[in-house]
Amino acid sequence: MSAVQLPDVSVELDESGHLSVDFLLPTGILVPLMVDFYASLDLIKKSLWREVPKYPLNTKLKREDSYCFMFVNKVGEKEEILDESQNLNDVRPFWPVLKLVEKKGDKTSKTLDRSVNNLIGKGPHKLDSYQPAEIEHFRKKMTELYQDINTARRGQTAMEKFEWRHPLRLRSSPDIPKQLKSRLNNDHIVINVEIQQQMCHKLRLSAQCTPMEAVRLLLEECPGYAEPDDCILKVFGLDEFLYGCYPLIQFKYVYLCLVKNTAPQFWLVHTSTLPDMAPPVPPVPPNRRGTLPVFSYEQPEDSYHCSWKVQHKFSISVTGINKVQLADNSKIKMFAGLYHGNEALCEVQETDELPVQEGSCNMKVELTFPIIVADVPRSARLCFAVCAAATTKKKTSRDFNRVAWVNMQVYDFKGRLPRGNQVLPMWQYEALLLDEPCYPIGTVALNPLGHDATTLSLSFPDYNVRSSIVYPPYHLVKECAANNMEPERTPGSPSMRVSKLHLDQLQSALGQEELFEQDKDLLWLLRFEVRDRFPHHLSQLLQTVKWNNHIDVAKMIVLLESWPGLEVDYALELLDFEFPEYHVRKFAVKCLDSVLGNDELSQYLLQLVQALKYETYLNCPLAKFLLTRALKNQHLGHKLFWLLRSEMHSPAVMVQYSLILECYLRANKDHMGELHKQKEALSKLTFVNQLVKMDRYRFDDQKCQKLANSDMQSVLGQKTYCAKLSDLTSPLSPLFKLKELRVDKCKVMKSKKRPLWLVWSNMDSAADDISLLYKNGDDLRQDMLTLQMLQLMDNIWQAEGLDLRMNPYMCIATGDQQGLIEVVTDSETIANIQMWYKKKTFDKRALLEWLKDKHGTGPELDQAVQEFMLSCAGYCVATYVLGIGDRHNDNIMMKSSGQLFHIDFGHILGNFKSKFGVKRERVPFVLTTHFVHVIKKGESNNDNFERFRETCEQAYLILRSRSHLLMSLFMMMLSSGIPQLTCRRDVDYLKETLKPDLTEEGAREHFRGKFKEALRNSWTTSVNFWFHNFAKDK
């Protein structure tokens, strides 16, 4: 008997590809609706939800994301549609009826949801800026990722699980710089190990000895105590352990002790006393039966229509602009551009001036772009701007006041062109310096707080194609590149014979800062030579690609397959906004994954979190890379959590960042408890800070200051506060465990925002206390960036064997306008030292006399002068290169060891303070007579000053050799919202200081000129110091 042929709902389609569908609501109400057969189900659900208020019992319904569709398939079974990115053509229901059913969930998962949302700082109403289908797709993919990691974790040994929570901090190499080798005694170091209370052993061993060998040697002196395999070395005062087959000198802690010329101190810990640090592995949830397979490019090609076959010009219809915050009869104009990165793919389109009535502008305007659909690249974005007309008679785009903007992906996360009607909540323009009305660097997320925002209504055509129009899969991209490759041995082909003249021209073009059209054409023709001879110039080659030509795009994508891996300096820049192409970003992530260890990755995490803002889709290689590394290293996870959590107040990223945080926390429930305790502690500190900011605590009155301290200590001493502020990990670093708050040592600082000086006892009872500064009301992001750069500079110098005794203390933003700063103990401001000396501010002897008071006049003083000389050189070069301004004697400090360091970085990249139009900074960097007096140890050591000058030059040239990296890192921060870093012009300041266009000798002469200028005009800095001291005396 032949099979019965069931009817297909597609036969019911009208000429426009629409189908009448009945929707059965949970209330029993039936809603008939004409829907696009090829529109995604999440868009259909939105259309349905706009109709729901017209029907009875609508108030009984929950939010739309609480429901999913159910249908009857062709074999008579009920199926829930979990993937709403599908359309009715993919699902093919037996009958055009869809039932809305509540999504399933148990109490445990709902409790976890609440805990995660509470910790992230996200309410359930904040997920409206992306398609629900894209959000669910991201969750599904990331859940698969962490389940794979947790499955692998089940087979790990106890030690392997321990390593996840206590990862090693290692240098990239065990090599020791020449100037530090003299501190070794015949390549040996001395370590102090405490076995039990008051039983300390001093051990002399090879710097190349491993931790296990050190434990074995120690236990030979203590027979019968334990077996070597049952013990581990713990760093005294830190939650850090040494293990593995690495030389002791390769551990960062041991190396830092060598730098400080102190003996490393350890506890010998029995492993049986360590708690089980392995995170519990969550069970794999049972698979719920979904619908047909999720749409993928592996489906038969006749199920979709390739966008490269569409020769129509790309077009959209604007059907309305509503909730415009302008008076009636105001005139507005809309601009629309197609962009790839910051490059417009064709001319920006604009409407005529249109009148506003009652906040709305009703219209139907079709905008046709001078580019065919086939040539629109996968990572293109549509950028819209609504502007209010100016009053000038001759109007250009610059004569309009920007009102609102919004960006959207041209292709959705499944690679499909939009179709049908869409309403986009727009963003308000902030104080941005823009040359064009559109804002392509802005997010593609819609405004999640858009209930009162200006909205833009659009309609997208189907280009006379019924099925989904989809960007071609990779095998078709390869096929296109192969079919259009230049003929053998002709320009542009891999077999082209390249003459010496061509090579010379190529090198000349690559050496230019800006590429002209003829240079771009040359680079493109010689792209295979660039790959083989100059692979680190990939970013310049990408600038030559005609992104509005799908054949060139296909050739570039395929060329990346054979591109050699790049070093971190050149891979990072490919994650900048200028390079949105998926395969380019995937290649960059692959390079970073291969060259960066976890410690090095942590060094660049600030920029990589910002680079997430440049991603076109939620599910991207960068998000997967960061999550994978964080899930395998809790120190990275800790830092990633706070970097993401601190920006959750920003509507532009709250959805994207919350989804990444959600995935991390669900995979690490034990870490979630630890982080939750940190969040609660910070909430308590916020309350205390608000208390001491009350009007009755005037900080210019000494009695009020004492009262503020007394009241603060009374609150901190309460049981609830003591409980919340004890036994927790410091948000600054998981290496620091805070035991008990020493309330009597806590105080309120006198500065405007009333920061709290907080002191905790250490988990190791005999270790030093841990002091932190809590700030609420100050934007710490600029300080974070500056301190990160100082740390990076120190790492660059250390890698070249130059130790400049830098002190880039820790700083982290934990939320909007709040965060924590490490307190550098045993240090004083230059101003306080000058006041201690009780002589005139201009007396250059103050600093040296203070060091003599601490160290006498013997070898200890010589060591302190050396510390001062090296650190002064480091900060002179660093503050010059970064353009750090507003330097005075209250934000330059010195430790009793002689180390100089700078604090408070409110002005960077040459954004110096000015008064009456005159810049206060008149020197490239601070090098006063006070500093020179210390370096020369009075007037007796001119040779030391010459060494100082040479050290400065050496440090400058080393930084200059990494100028590409430094500029790339600043470029990646343009989306951070830091006020003094908003556009490329700000980053160009580094070109003025690093002079990458000069030869090394030319750069050396340039810096020598700045050095002489700093010395010549040092009197101006001394005057500035005097004014600060005078103000303090008042």
TrEMBL record:
Belongs to the PI3/PI4-kinase family. Residues 310-461 form the C2 PI3K-type domain. GO terms for biological process: bleb assembly; cell migration; phosphatidylinositol 3-kinase/protein kinase B signal transduction; phosphatidylinositol-mediated signaling; regulation of chemotaxis. This is phosphatidylinositol 3-kinase. Gene3D superfamilies: 3.10.20.770, C2 domain, Phosphatidylinositol 3-/4-kinase, catalytic domain, Phosphatidylinositol 3-kinase Catalytic Subunit, Chain A, domain 4, Phosphatidylinositol 3-kinase, accessory domain (PIK). Transmembrane segments: none annotated. Residues 489-667 form the PIK helical domain. SUPFAM superfamilies: ARM repeat, C2 domain (Calcium/lipid-binding domain, CaLB), Protein kinase-like (PK-like), Ubiquitin-like. PANTHER family: PHOSPHATIDYLINOSITOL KINASE (PTHR10048), PI-3 KINASE (PTHR10048:SF118). Residues 186-270 form the PI3K-RBD domain. Residues 742-1019 form the PI3K/PI4K catalytic domain. Keywords: ATP-binding, Kinase, Nucleotide-binding, Transferase. Its EC number is 2.7.1.137. It comes from the Eukaryota. InterPro entries: ARM-type_fold (IPR016024), C2_domain_sf (IPR035892), Kinase-like_dom_sf (IPR011009), PI3/4_kinase (IPR015433), PI3/4_kinase_cat_dom (IPR000403), PI3/4_kinase_cat_sf (IPR036940), PI3/4_kinase_CS (IPR018936), PI3K-type_C2_dom (IPR002420). It catalyses: a 1,2-diacyl-sn-glycero-3-phospho-(1D-myo-inositol) + ATP = a 1,2-diacyl-sn-glycero-3-phospho-(1D-myo-inositol-3-phosphate) + ADP + H(+). The keyword Lyase does not apply. Residues 15-104 form the PI3K-ABD domain. GO terms for molecular function: 1-phosphatidylinositol-3-kinase activity; 1-phosphatidylinositol-4-phosphate 3-kinase activity; ATP binding. GO terms for cellular component: cytoplasm; phosphatidylinositol 3-kinase complex; plasma membrane.
